[in-house]
Amino acid sequence: MTTVTHLKGTRAALDGDPFLSVRDLHVQFATEDGMVRAVDGLSFDVEKGTTIGIVGESGSGKSVTSLAVLGLHHPQTTSISGEIYLDGRQLIGAPRSALERLRGNKMAMIFQDPLTALSPYHTVGQQISETYRRHTKASKKEAHDRAVQMLTRVGIPQPKMRADDYPHQFSGGMRQRAMIAMALVCDPDLLIADEPTTALDVTVQAQILDLLKDLQQQTGTAIILITHDLGVVANTAHNVLVMYAGRAVERGSVHEVLSAPQHPYTWGLLSSMPRLTTPVDVPLRPVGGTPPSLIDLPAGCPFHPRCDHTNAVLSPMNCTTMRPQIPHEDTRGAACHLTLQQRQDIFVRNIQPRLG
Ligand code: SF4
């Protein structure tokens, strides 16, 4: 990345700088049981008009990362360090008022469960138009027209009429469309979608993911898609970041990671996924063991208690003593002490035949 001078937490976005750049992000929470290291040195970039899928099990740090980007952590109980640049502006340490202005205007979020994110006491149209008015000088009439326009854009039938409905009068898929309309009403440059389709049935899920792709093509929005489902990533994202225990264990383009994954944890995730080509009598293989406690992370590679490949490492002790990392500047790589050649050989010999 280009070296630039920091000026009061802001730097000029230079040609070639990523639109969103997260560098060495650490997020820790103080709890009665000890310090939770929820995100532990994470780096990634997102360009305009592209989607990065952040994948991992519950507790891997995916959602905490997105809340850090949005500046939604409680300052009293959370400690955040590192750098988050959005279009050249440093977000860590930025005043709350500046972050509030950016939320909705430059960046927005859609949540897994629209019923908890939408107010049951206001109509869908009111909620979208209020969001618009908070960030613009629009009149009530202009904001209402904008809400109807957004409902049309996300495919709600009879949008003028449905704008006067309350969220409970919408189906699950329509509520998620309404949430997307609300998130996009101010044309944000960055959209964070946290498990946006988990609560929906498969057909509606595909419609919502297609909608996000269409809207991205029209607006050039950068999207962070948080999911535990590599199938969703395969259909929607350009790049993937696989997270484990608050760290990046693998990253690359969707094609690179899904066709030639390099990390034993990614192999485990792929082996646990049902596929059309998997014979019905072949059982799925969940990743063995359980994720580690984020208060007491294992030394070395945090995946070592669950890894089947430590004996293949030249010095297996390294797995329990040395933390493997992907260099910040590498767009493709995996955090593992196995050599690249070993990982490629193990994948082709042992893992690929299982995936079909
Ligand atoms: Fe497994 Fe060792 Fe690689 Fe970690 S570093 S994934 S424990 S082989």
Summary tags:
globular; disordered N terminus; 356 residues; binds iron/sulfur cluster; alpha/beta; 20% strand; 7-stranded mixed beta sheet; single chain
Short description:
It is built from 13 helices and 11 strands. It is α/β, with parallel strands linked by helices and 356 residues long. The strands form 2 sheets. The chain has a 7-stranded mixed sheet, with helices on both faces. A 4-stranded antiparallel sheet has the order 2-1-4-5, covered by helices on one side.
Describe this structure in words.
The longest helix is centred in the middle third of the chain and has 18 residues, at 202-219. Among the domains are: 107-187, no CATH class; 261-355, no CATH class. A hairpin with a 2-residue loop joins strand 9 (239-244) and strand 10. It has 356 residues and is an alpha/beta fold. It contains 13 helices and eleven strands. The strands form two sheets. It has a seven-stranded mixed β-sheet, with helices on both faces. Strands 2-1-4-5 form a four-stranded antiparallel β-sheet, covered by helices on one side. The radius of gyration is 21 Å and the shape is globular. The chain has helices spanning 62-70, 96-105, 114-117, 124-135, 140-153, 159-162, 172-184, 202-219, 230-236, 254-259, 264-271, 317-321, 340-355, and strands at residues 20-31, 34-46, 51-55, 78-86, 89-90, 107-110, 190-194, 222-227, 239-244, 247-253, 333-334. The structure holds iron/sulfur cluster.
